[in-house]
Specification:
NAD, N-(1-d-carboxylethyl)-l-norvaline Dehydrogenase, domain 2, 509 residues, 24 helices, binds D-mannonic acid, Rossmann fold, Mannitol-1-phosphate 5-dehydrogenase, 2 domains, Mannitol_DH/Oxidoreductase, globular, EC 1.1.1.17, 48% helix, 11% strand, alpha/beta, mannitol-1-phosphate 5-dehydrogenase activity
Length: 509
């Protein structure tokens, strides 16, 4: 650390030429991005840098952080530069994308954010606000009209606090100012992320007081596009390891580098209302039908990832590579991937399944990345809703028990709502989840010792939507596996799920 303090700060003049796609950020802002986190900075920003390296255009990105000032402030201090540290056991590769024209913090500069959303030069509003940022109700998938922040945003009580509120208030200003068409592009791990965003935006608009609605709804229909997209890159949190890597490789101090795996994929619908960067030059794929890619990724990668994280944390593992390195977790990962997720989807024609799955296991095993079980396991209540219920229902309707999906739910509950007297360990305890308090309340109210009553109450709370409550056997199976987890540990529970799944083979579609 002491060595780093004497290094010059990363900035326009200190970027080594070999690491910069372009030396200067583009002059014009064409994209306002909500969610200035690591994922955006290692994914969309890198694709945009590649697009601009190939074809110039007015596609500078104004990054907007929600509340956290640290990244925005450091980026401003570094003239919008930061390093992307691509890391795998054999290789470290550092680049400096330089595509941001500015960085705002919505909580501090709300009017500037709304002005930027309304600016005629803004052709794209993109977002990475995580599953948690969409303020939808898990039960209905519609806007959560009971959430205090949504209610405050609808009432116009201070600057918008929710992403959907921010977008609608920005579009409202845009409609009044110039009505220029714009695209809202969600880059989060939601099924049909564009369709969902459009629905939430419309629901918010329709819930506004009549006097404020203007003719926003028809304008949204005509002038605003909401393409669906699938995004994929494993991007852990920044640690000093990566700050040190930048210092060693570039000889500069970067306070906010982003670690990322070498792999990156982006598939989206080519439905843009006012143009877009030539992202195909950064390897993005454009297609009429994103859903098969979304389901492939959300289920095989994200769904399996959740199981690895929860079993790993319960086994005392701090990272995903340490977890997948345990044979019983690798076996459970194969069980849920091949047995429960794969039969629930159609693999896109251009994806070679064996290679894709082989690559997934390699990506999870990337020890250099140090991806934390705590990070993947956090926000499970909003993530699992996107990953588990639809495939589970598909099996249950066909009369089959999805044992490894039941194991996923059991391991999740064991981590974030541990039965009293059971300690899930430090990695599970560190998982952040908006439903933690509610789940603990449900656990406290369940008749003592009845795991089935607990799981039934959890499912009835709508945590995983509505459908699963119709299958009491599923709650029963989750409860059994929860019991095995608590009494005998994750290896025994995984073995139980595997044995049961093997006794009940299923066809692969
Ligand atoms: C992970 C994802 O945290 C999680 O739930 O499954 O963030 C995953 O790393 C990315 O979606 C990979 O594209």
């Amino acid at each position: 650390m002491t060595a780093m303090t004497v290094l010059p700060r990363l900035g326009a003049a200190t970027v080594p030429a070999r690491t910069a796609g372009r030396r200067r950020p583009p002059a014009e802002t064409g994209i306002v991005h909500l969610g200035l986190g690591n994922f955006h900075r290692a994914h969309q920003a890198v694709h945009t840098a590649a697009a601009l390296a190939h074809t110039d255009g007015p596609w500078g990105i104004l990054g907007v952080a929600g509340r956290s000032v640290s990244v925005a402030r450091a980026m401003r201090e570094q003239e919008m530069r930061y390093a992307v540290v691509e890391i795998s056991p054999g290789r470290t590769h550092v680049t400096v994308p330089a595509v941001h024209t500015g960085a705002l913090v919505a909580a501090e500069q709300p009017e500037d954010v709304l002005d930027a959303l309304a600016a005629p030069g803004t052709a794209l509003i993109t977002m990475t606000v995580t599953e948690h940022g969409y303020t939808y109700s898990p039960r209905t998938h519609g806007l959560d009209l009971d959430a205090p922040a949504v209610r405050a945003d609808l009432a116009g009580d201070g600057p918008p606090r929710t992403t959907i509120g921010q977008i609608v208030r920005g579009l409202q200003r845009r409609r009044r100012a110039n009505a220029a068409p714009v695209t809202v592009l969600s880059c989060d791990n939601l099924v049909g992320n564009g369709d969902q965003t459009r629905r939430l935006v419309r629901e918010f608009t329709e819930a506004l007081p009549t006097a404020e609605r203007d003719d926003l709804t028809p304008w949204l229909e005509n002038a605003v596009a909401f393409p669906n997209s699938m995004v994929d890159r494993i991007v852990p949190a920044t640690t000093d390891v990566y700050r040190d890597a930048v210092a060693a490789r570039l000889g500069v101090r970067d306070d906010v580098p982003v670690p990322a795996e070498p792999f990156s994929m982006w598939v989206m619908e080519d439905r843009f209302a006012a143009g877009r960067p030539r992202w195909e030059h950064g390897g993005a794929l454009f297609t009429d039908d994103v859903e098969p890619y979304e389901l492939l990724k959300l289920r095989l990668l994200n769904g399996t990832h959740s199981l690895i994280a929860y079993l790993g944390a319960l086994d005392g593992r701090g990272t995903i590579p340490d977890s997948i390195g345990r044979p019983f977790i690798a076996e459970a990962a194969r069980g849920v991937l091949f047995g429960d997720y794969l039969p629930s989807l159609a693999v896109p024609a251009d994806i070679e399944l064996d290679a894709y799955v082989g690559q997934l296991f390699e990506r999870w095993a990337n020890t250099a990345l140090g991806h934390r079980t705590q990070q993947v396991g956090s926000d499970g209540s909003v993530k699992l809703r996107q990953r588990v219920p639809e495939p589970a229902l598909l099996h249950l309707r066909a009369g089959r028990m999805p044992h490894h999906l039941a194991l996923t739910v059991a391991a999740y509950l064991c981590c974030v709502a541990p039965p009293s007297g059971f300690s899930p360990g430090p990695h599970a305890a560190a998982m952040v989840d908006p439903a933690r308090a509610a789940l603990t309340g449900i656990a406290d109210r369940a008749p003592s010792g009845s795991r089935t009553a607990f799981v039934e109450a959890v499912l009835e709370s709508g945590l995983l939507g509505d459908g699963l409550t119709e299958y009491p056997d599923f709650a029963g199976r989750v409860a059994e596996l929860l019991d095995v987890l608590v009494r005998y540990g994750p290896a025994a529970a995984a073995a139980d799920a595997t044995r049961a799944a093997e006794a009940e083979p299923r066809p692969v579609r």
